[in-house]
Amino acid sequence: MPLRKIIISFLLLWTWSYSHGQNVEKYIYLDDIAYKYIDYRINSGRSVPGFVFYQPYDMELIKQGAQKRKGGIYFEKFWQRYYGPGEISGQLDLGDELRYNEVAFNRYRLRGGVHFTHENITLANRTEVNQDYKHDPGYAGDLSESAHWLYGRVNDAYINLNFNGFNVFFGRVHRNWGPVGSKSLMLSDNPYTYDHFLFSYTYKVLKISLIFGRLEDLDAWMQAKTGQEPVFVPDARKYFSGHRLDLAFSDRFQIGLTEMAVYGGEGRDFEFAFLNPINFYYGLQRNDGRQMNGMWSVDLYYKPWQRLTLYGQLLIDDVIVNNDPGVDDRARYPDRFGIMVSARTGDWMLEGLNLEFTYNRIWNRTYQSKFTYENYHYRELSMIFGRYGDVSVTDLFPLKKEPFPLPPVTKNLVTDLSVHYFFSPLLNAYLQLQYLKDRNHYANRINQFEGFSVSIGAQIVLAGGIIL
Description:
By secondary structure, the chain is mostly beta strands. The chain has helices spanning 3-16, 34-43, 60-63, 70-83, 281-288, 329-332; strands spanning 54-55, 88-100, 104-118, 121-130, 153-163, 166-172, 176-177, 196-203, 206-214, 218-222, 231-248, 253-265, 293-305, 308-318, 336-346, 354-362, 377-378, 381-382, 414-422, 427-436, 451-466.
């Protein structure tokens, strides 16, 4: 039976299931400033999500332990108004920003959303028109009519089903599997949203998840052996699949384990072997000949004291082992890792103060493969927080050992100060001052200017609900 028919049949059976309790997930979208406030609440010990690494969070988090102070009341009222009291809610988000670097220019944003939520099901669509799209090299949409507003992107569109601890998601939305407010080493909101399936089951302190989807087709290169000339692969297919185990032992200690695989090639189809949530992808590669680029990560969360939060992430892309007698592969090929450690505190010395100290290191060729259709990106934007400098996540892995960091090495200074003021749950304004020494150091995002830049903006959200 084709995969499409199996999935449709499964979803139909799921929707026939019925539960009298409200079990709907209403997401706090990752592009909202609420995550800075949630980060502060975690670090100050005011409230901790049930599974801290698993984002986007549900809006129920805002209600849990909401503080009776202006910030807490604002976010609680905003999200209650955003989704509305009924089954159908509509939102209109209008934003305008004036930026100045060497010259002043204006950027507007228009976002419209519709959500239907009832008992075990959510259907959602958020479509955005944003002037930044016209200046973004990673934007893949049609800009031929951009002078007449005829451009935009459906950033969020999904159906989400919940029943007795099971969750089934199909569609597109930003996700982050890592510390709140930081882009994960394994799966983050750095690229544009992409269509995917996600299944999860939650039981007390345990959550098991499976995610899979098809990424963009691309013209690729492959280099199977050292010294061999790269071979061009036209219109290669690209898939990704991952499974994860989260264990939330308490508000003070949680752990997450993830395995991810990216695979594809010319004419290669989706493979059911990667759907097994209890299987081991590395075993599929070694025992069943399923070629893929596999990655593994361990996430740790620990609060030794109420006002101190410690995070750690270790990512393993490849560890070189000398399997053949007399062959020193470790001298020829590099290990590829990623590491992140972060210490955060809230309400230390001053109530409302949130401090973060984070260290990241990504080895030279992490997230790359000798087949570029196995590299870890979507439309040339890394699926993690980004690669800066002379090494790009889209490059072909050269199958040789190199010094770290790979020359030429660039150094940069970035200073960012932003102030947000919430006049009401409907309206907020902000001021941002930024200094960037070398814009070429950051080669994969828009809105980067050398020297000082100033941004002044405002955002108004109009939302309402309908009770059926």
